[in-house]
Amino acid sequence: MAYETIESKFIATAEKGEVSSILIRPDNAKWLLVLGHGAGTNMRHSTLQTIAERLADIGIATFRYQFPYMERGGGGREAQAVALATVRSAAAAAHEAASDLGILVGGHSYSGRMSSLTAAEAPIENVSGLVFFAFPLHPSGREGIERAEHLDDVTIPMLFLSGTRDKLAKLELLEPVCEKLGDIATLHLLDTADHGFKTLKRSRKSDEDVFVEMARVLSEWTETFSR
């Protein structure tokens, strides 16, 4: 599918200034996913690039963006308040860039959690749903569900795309969390995938590429609710 790519910048916060973004808009898109990066990666990382490309293949636009600390080169992360403000700014910039599209917000790992914390704090204007690519439920080796407590305050649909080998989201913890959230949460398990979506080809039950699978599931999920 043909699509255009537009690189630009927007103001993350008044204090932190501008950060970079990449808009990929395929022909006939109906939805735009505001897509953040993992804690130690950036918007050009191969994982985010592949997610964006597979979504473009099926007609979903993406707006990738940097958090201020990564825009500066990846030093220490700033206060959580800065991250949450950046999520709101990214959603606003995405809506301005493609106001005719429905807006979803999410990201891989860290940015997914920052997106849900933002939505739990107060609704994000123009946003219809949240998408978590490997929600980091707990640190590796320190299992718990404290990071999910704020999800009770989210009022829009949430899609969890989580690998069965993800060491940051043990299934025996993640599944009850999603069940407790009820109909607002959809959990899709990615067979043999880890936190970075690497799969075990020999034991994986499906021949479908994991990134193709995530794009397909996301597209099907958007059909279950309105903009």
What are the key terms here?
227 residues; globular; Rossmann fold; 6 helices; alpha/beta; 8-stranded mixed sheet
Question: Can you walk through the features of this model?
Answer:
There is one protein chain. The protein has 6 helices and 8 strands; from the N terminus they run βββαβααβαββαβα. The mean pLDDT is 95. The two termini are 23 Å apart. It has 227 residues and is an alpha/beta fold. α1 (46-57) crosses α6 (210-222) and α3 packs across α4. An 8-stranded mixed β-sheet has the order 1-2-4-3-5-6-7-8, sandwiched between helices. It is globular, with a radius of gyration of 16 Å. The chain has one domain (3-222): Alpha/Beta hydrolase fold, catalytic domain (Rossmann fold, 3-Layer(aba) Sandwich), CATH 3.40.50. β1 (3-13) and β2 (17-26) form a beta hairpin.
Structural domains: how many = 1
Strand content: 25-35%
CATH class: Alpha Beta
CATH superfamily: Alpha/Beta hydrolase fold, catalytic domain
Determine the structural class based on helices, strands and strand pairing.
alpha/beta
Anisotropy-based shape = globular
Q: Please mark out the parts with pLDDT under 50 across 5 or more consecutive residues, or reply none.
A: none
Number of β-strand runs? 8
The arrangement of helices and strands along the chain is EEEHEHHEHEEHEH
What is the helical fraction, as a range of percent? 25-40%
CATH level 3 topology: Rossmann fold
Largest sheet: 8 strands, mixed
Quick check: average pLDDT?
A: 95
Rounded Rg = 16 Å
Terminal Cα separation, in Å?
23 Å
CATH architecture: 3-Layer(aba) Sandwich
The helix tally amounts to 6
Strand order of the largest sheet: 1-2-4-3-5-6-7-8
